[in-house]
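User: Earlier you gave me the apo prediction for this protein. Now I'd like the version with nicotinamide-adenine-dinucleotide bound, so I can compare the two side by side. Same sequence as before, with the ligand SMILES added.
Assistant: Got it. Here's the input I'm using:
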Amino acid sequence: MKVDLNGKTALVTGAARGIGKAIADMLADNGARVAYTDIVEEGARQGAAARAGCVARRLDVTSAADIGAAVQWVRATFGGLDILINNAGVNTMKHRVTLDQFPQEEWDWIVNTDMTGCYRVTKAFVPLLFARGGGRIVNIASVFGLVPARLQCAFVAAKAGVVNLTKAMAMEFAERGVLVNAIAPGSIPIEGPQGLFTGNNPIMKARMEAMLSHIPLHRFGKVTDIANAALFLVAPENEYMTGAVVTVDGGWTAGYSRDF
Ligand SMILES: NC(=O)c1ccc[n+]([C@@H]2O[C@H](COP(=O)([O-])OP(=O)(O)OC[C@H]3O[C@@H](n4cnc5c(N)ncnc54)[C@H](O)[C@@H]3O)[C@@H](O)[C@H]2O)c1
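And here is the structure of the complex with nicotinamide-adenine-dinucleotide:
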């Protein structure tokens, strides 16, 4: 898909790899100047270095100091901001346990990053969008924010929070010309723990097959599937979608993909 983002500036959180990097690359390839930000600065730098006009900086979405410094930096570097992508997110692979066993520190880390991070970063950057007379925000939620899975209480709660935060922001920012939408990805294998699915471990292979059996399109998603949806949401052609949660999940949450 091609849209014209020439003259637009964008900031993506969690852009060092995975979905965030794919979105940042997609926006840059369609003409935007993109600020790649991540808690892992080196990854963000590598991404930005490969695209003309793009820049990078460390931005931990749980750090007030990092967020404040990044706002000043964006003002100085771009002179303003049109597009904000709240993508940074974490989940636990280690503590897949029921809520009564779920460690408080793991809860705090996930909720602070995935939900509170979205609130904090938006609060800090949205005045720049207001100053432009409008803009676009895309929050990366999850299908588990719509239909929870077992053994991930913090993640499902945080992502459900992102879903409703998106709708609240859409209502509150509409009169300022800022359209706010969420994308709920299904399962998108990335470098990292989910890469285990693609190895030879028989337990992981069985889990992968079980998961695929629920997905009508019978494949996992690609990072570009998510980036294409984000591109549409931030495009000038999107003038009337706000407060929407776009599932990009191969049909996973369309219904029970089972014959009874
Ligand atoms: N991959 C999937 O299957 C999937 C499914 C549903 C939702 N998501 C969501 O998509 C988003 C991107 O995930 P991904 O799959 O690309 O994972 P990923 O782990 O590859 O990327 C996440 C990025 O966020 C960064 N990050 C972590 N903590 C941060 C912090 N405090 N501040 C700033 N950056 C931080 C990481 O360094 C990393 O670069 C997340 O919000 C995730 O919850 C992913």
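For your comparison, keep in mind: The pocket of nicotinamide-adenine-dinucleotide is lined by residues 13-14, 16-20, 38-40, 43, 59-62, 87-90, 113, 140, 142, 185, 187-188, 190, 192 (CB under 6 Å).
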